[in-house]
Structure formats: structure tokens, C-alpha cells
Design goal:
223 residues; 26% strand; alpha+beta; single chain; 21% helix
Length: 223
Amino acid sequence: MATEQDSFLDENYEAPASGGGYTKLEMGENRFRVLSSPLMVWVIWANGQVKRVPYNKDEKPALPEGDNPSVKHAWELVVYNYKTQQIEIFELDKMTVINPLTTHSKDPDWGHPKKYDITITKSGSGKDGTKYAFVAKPHKEVSEDVKEAYFNTPIDLGQLLVENGNPFLPAPSGESAPAANAGPTPEQVAAAAKAAADKAAAAKAAAAATDSTPAAGAKKPPF
């Protein structure tokens, strides 16, 4: 019988919720609040590597060379995932969800899904047997927990169009400012230069995406 001294885990230990900032649909019901307009993209896969380019329905990218190549249309969305209780990027490429969500968003009685929760229920298994069912829930205000998570998790969807871009921006912090006489280190100078270059590239890519997708990304609070 384990004693307090030789116990392997604290009795109050709980594993963290799954998810690393990107949405993974679990079996059963998955509930979300959409918090941005979609960034429309083509998602290009080959050799285990992914590239995203702005969506143009008349210019589908060619299938790349390499192992397991694919080209899919997808929506990049900022969402609150009630199961993981965090803000995530949801790469939605299921037409059985995109089509009804499009219909609801164009219906004046429903409108933008920031006004209501949606559920996506995953069932079955295998490439041909997995199904996704969409349901829109009644309108209700965004909860304070969702608002707090949104403001603490700034996201720039445009970075998804930048090679090696990071869409998850630094969270607000209360860190004190560096001493006035402390000059930047060479590493800080290099990092700042790279950040500036990435920001310029992201702005260019996001502007290109906006041509086909107005209001791409979450540029202002949706509440």
C-alpha cells in the first residue's frame, strides 16, 4: 500500500487538457464560439510539410510532388473551444460543416457565428466512415471566461501565410521594463530584425488574402 512518502503522484494532480493552440476534433460533440471571420486558404501538404496560400477559387494550386501530397480548401478561424477551455486556431476543411455554417452566416436570423455557439459532432472511423454533423445553438452573449481568454491569447491569422510564421502573439504581461542604460544584446538585435521582416511579410500576405476574404483574422474584439 502506497504511503504519502512513496506516492508517485500528488493526489490533486490533473493532466492538462489536450490541445496546443490548434483545434483537434474529438469523437462526440465539440462545442465552439467563433471569434473571427475566416481567413480563406489553400492548404498544401507534401512530405509531412504544410504550406498555406491565399484562396482563389479560380487558381487551385497544383498537387505538389512528394509523399502523401494533397491540396485542400480551408477556413482558418479563431475559436474558443469549450472542451479544452482555450482560444485556438481551427483549420476547418470539412465541407459538411463549411456549407451549413455558410448558410447560417448569410441568414439574417443567424448572422455571424460570433453571436452563437456551434457544435460539430464527430462519429464513425476511417477515411470514408468518419462523419461530421453541424448544429447552431441559440443566440447568447459571450461569457466573461471566453472574453478573458480571447484578450489573453492574441492571434494574427496572417502569420499562417508566412513561412515559419507564428500566429500566436506574445500574451500581455506585467513584466517590468529593462533598465534605461541596458543596451540590446546582439541576439536581441537579430531577433528584432527578424520580427520586423516577419511582420512585413505577414502584412503583405494578409493583404493578399484580404482581397478575397474581407476582414480576415480577428483585428478587433468581436464582442
